[in-house]
Structure prediction request, 90 residues.
Amino acid sequence: MIAAVISNTKQAEEIKELTDAFIVPVERFSINYKKTFKLEEIKEIKKLNKEVFVVINKNIHNNEVEELKKLLIQIENHNLYFLICLNFYF
Prediction:
């Protein structure tokens, strides 16, 4: 499988024939990406008939847990995949 990290929806359209999937950082829960995407934008990318992996890679604070739960349910309801990348420090 070939997956590409994209910077905008136009780029996704331009390279859709070259990739099997898109890696998309989600707004509020992804860090260290040039751009993050709102869930509505991610749904539009999904319409390109490619697999979409939503990146969640920031430390989650207690006050964000409920919002994250809602997001994960929405991701699942739209047949999207999610990647949760965690950093552990000891």
User: Anything to note?
Assistant: Residues 10 and 45 are 9 Å apart (CA to CA).
